Amino acid sequence: MKMAENQQNHRISIESKLVASQSAQSKLGQVFGLIIGLSGIGCGTYLASIGQDIVGGIIAGGTVVSLVSVFVLGKKSQKKNNED
Predict the structure, then answer these.
(1) What is the reported pLDDT for 72?
(2) Could you read off the pLDDT tens digit of each residue along the chain, which spans 84 residues?
(3) Is residue 63 within 8 Å of residue 51, measured between CB atoms?
(4) Domain hosting residue 36, numbered range
(5) Most distant pair of Cα atoms in the chain: their distance
(6) Which distant-in-sequence residues (6+ apart) come within 8 Å of 60 by Cβ?
(7) pLDDT at residue 26, as a whole number
(8) What three-state secondary structure class fits 52?
(9) Number of structural domains, the chain?
(10) CA angle 32, 79, 26 (to 5 degrees)
(11) CA-CA distance, 24 to 71, in Å (whole number)?
């Protein structure tokens, strides 16, 4: 009986560490996404301000489209995993 209780406590400990790790990883991903987004939009804005409108638009627009698509695909994947 004691061995089963120890196993249960061990599993609970591992699961709580896993949840904390996934939460930290998610927050880190959001921070890096923000940095990438602001950098891309900032570079595009700078290029547009110095007369390179087309290149600036491509860089800024591409950054926004990429981040939105990653977000949408990630949510779709999460929803699919939760249904299974």
Answers:
(1) 84
(2) 788 888 888 899 899 999 999 889 889 988 998 999 999 999 999 999 999 999 999 999 999 999 888 888 887 777 777 776
(3) no
(4) 2-83
(5) 75
(6) 40, 41, 43, 44, 45, 48
(7) 85
(8) coil
(9) 1
(10) 20
(11) 17
